[in-house]
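Sanity check

After download, print the first record. It should look like this:
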Amino acid sequence: MSVKYYTHFLLQESKPKGLSEFRGVVEVNRTMRRGDLKEAAAVLARNFECESRDIKVLQWSRLH
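Expected structure tokens:
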């Protein structure tokens, strides 16, 4: 069962160097702990093939 989350985050990119901003819906295969932005950054980092330290999650909330 997938769970949908709305997210708004910044990604520090190396080439071209700078910040990119993303907003949208992400589907995850499991329910995540509420307010765990560190885990959210790890999920996003896996999808973007980068380090979780390169992601700053501004908003992460479950959609109903």
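If your output differs, re-run the checksum step. Summary of this record's structure: The chain has a mean pLDDT of 92.
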